[in-house]
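Can anyone check this?
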Amino acid sequence: MVSRSDVQHALDAGKGLLRLDPAWVPRSFMIPGRRLKLHPDDLYALGAHRGGINERWFSSTTNADNGPGTPPDEGLSYVRIEGRPRLLLKEAVEVAGDLLLGAPVMEREKGWNLLCKFFDNWGPIPHHMHQSDAQAKLVGRRGKPEAYYFPPQYNETFNAFPYTFMGLEPGTTKADVLRALERWNRGDNGILYLSRAFKLEPGTGWQIDPCILHAPGSLVTYEPQVNSDVFAMFQSEVDGRIVPWELLTKDVPPKHHQDLDYLVELLDWDANLNPNFAADNRVFPKPVKGTDASEADGYREVWVSYGTGWYSAKELTVLPKRTVTVTDGAAYGIILTQGYGTFGGLAVSTPSMIRFGQSTEDELFVSAAAAQAGVRIENRSETDPLVILKHFGPGNPDAEPLRSETKKGNTRS
């Protein structure tokens, strides 16, 4: 059992930072995209019956919901402490969340309340939605909005289908979707005939609110989201693979599992039929401060997820042979996408290949106290930038001003 003193020891050893081991997650209904640096021999390390590994979860206190046979710690991040047994970040937050997140945040949020991941599939996945808080509460869960950012360093190849169907074509009716559900057991139920596909662009992103249909394409996606694994699949077949009805109803009250009218009403119809869907939901990087001022200090930093109180994320680029100190207003997790150096005194490096169960130097958790005091970051490369993605939980004070900015009219900087 993790104690408060265990967490304090880990924070003292890392000077306010925790080193995390990779948390790999398989999905039985998907085909791995093979770009997460996981060794090819380990893509099915958990067994073919569990599916291939196509997700890596970061700073995770959320259990993966993969049905029967799922290990109790699947999806959870472990803190690595030299000379001591590993401990779960989830348990560390439960016993000493104030030391990690700050007392005000822990009192308000009662936890980390963030799930962040890399998603990497060979092709598209089924058209689906994530329930709202009100809908998820009916089955004892939390609703799930999510953000997408496509890191260029992980998208050297686009795989089979770099497009995402999102929402529904304006003019689509509830009767149209109901007919698609009625055709579930006939193979392809035709739900994509009712939707629109958008080509995905590395270095940009999207915001997908609850109850919006989406069928993510084949780019590696960095996804900050609320810490929940609820979903409802609305597509019955993808690339010849049948999607079980149970994946439509797994987070629906049992009495409604065959209630097509109820299932259709899960969707936010105004949001799905929005004729300005791309303009209102696409996200372009936004400089944290003036670009020239940042680069003069040896780094660039941009928001890659913003405009919502659920979560936020930044991409930090430290220029070659530069050392900088960066402050933030809240605790956060990091994952490196390029380069090597030091972060708060800890060695960090981007791996070329990872064996299942192997530790890495590319992932950390930064406590609120360390973030607010400022973290010293050194890029030790003569040539390559050090690129770091930073994910924040709800209520990041630095992101609050961006909430007042509407996504409508969001443009490239």
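Reply from J.R.: I decoded it. The chain has twelve helices and 27 strands.
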